Cytochrome P450 (Laodelphax striatellus), 495 residues
Amino acid sequence: MWLEIAVICVLILLYFFSRDIKPRHFPPGPKWFPFVGNLFEFLQLHKKLTYVHLVWQYWSDIYGPILGVKLGLDRIVIISDYKRAIEVMALNEYEGRPDGFIFRLRALGKRLGVVFTDGPFGLEQRKFCLKQLKLNGFGKSSMEDRISQEVSEFTSYITSKCGKGPQDIYHTINVHVMNVLWSMISGKRFSHTDEKMAMLLQQIHKSFCLQDMTGGILNQVPIYRFFGEGKQIFNKHKHVVSLLNSFLKETIDEHKTKLDPQSINDVIDAYLLEIQRRNSENDFSFTEEQLIVTLVDLFMAGSDTTTNTISFLVQMLIQHPEVQERAQTEIDSICKGREVCLADRKQLNYVEAVIMEVQRFCNVAPLTIPHRTKKQVNLEEFIIPQDTTVLVNLYSIHMDKKFWKDPENFRPERFLDSEGRVKFIDRLIPFGTGRRRCLGETLGRASVFKFVTTILKNFNVTASDENAKRFRPIDGAILFPSPFTVEITPRTPLF
């Protein structure tokens, strides 16, 4: 018995030791240390630079646009160059998703959902999910109807607050943005005063802020969850996961009691019916657990990224009043006496340029969702081993001085040609690119356009605190605007 234990211990040590040796022709990066790799240096730099993407930028400036590091258990390659990023995101070899403690913690201890799954199972789940979303209006004219309903509710609420002092519009926007997707998923919508939805969105916010796109320290050193601050972070993660799962389980149970195969009204209904069909054929790839985690993925993907983009855009309008005025003038001239619709995007060139510049300048998602190499791959002169996590630093691409010339300046005109028409620049990739491009891009773009144009058409926004006047986002898996308040006044269109 003791011999067996000794052999197991030796094998475990050999496994970890083998991962401590930098593979031959691995991309350059800082020196690795036993077991922890570059983790301590990473944490020190993060404390100094505030943002994870700036740590990658700092190292990439030293070692090159293809950077190789090791954080705890994880080998990670960061791509900070547009040409190489496009190549990586287009290839099947990089299509995998990483496995790890945190990724499983949010998925009931398994590999479930549509974001952090891959292979035939992940592909089938994504296809089914996207098909059902489309059947419930995703990408169709009825999607604009849903967005318009939420925009109308939002406008009525903001109008009622005009002249009543500083307003924090972030949480109001968040509920209405979430409602568009949630109505397709569950057939329900929430009021902006609904305490349950407010609590859930707050928990999603916390979840994003607890980690970065690598999974964070608990993913890299899982044993840290038993000690000090690591235990606190772990308990916060568990609390968020528990609340979300409880809410979603309750929602699914409500649908089960009313499920009618002849009347499928939303994505949850369709998935429950698919579970029944598959089970009757002894196929158990569709389960309630998979449904819960899929809903977590959609819930998280459908709220904060879009809300943060809109909020950052409001901040930019406040900090650049000449941009706000020019965008309002364009809307007034094109949309005389009526509300703005999605079809107007083709004519509202300056508004589109403003949105693009916000996506470039503010970088809500400065890093892509992590990829995983499904087998050993060659990238130029480097060899990237199987099961290496690969990230693209979108921030580096969007702030590349060689291409953008003055990336630190907020200048929407860079997206207009000499005749004032929108100039689409392929280096702007806020939703990623390639085979695992963001599923919610269509909805995200439409929601941002509708909410922003409605704000511009109906209101003037000015700062009511210092946070509104400065761009200092909060770090996390995505970037959040620091809480700020605005003064909102109704406006009379020029035409």
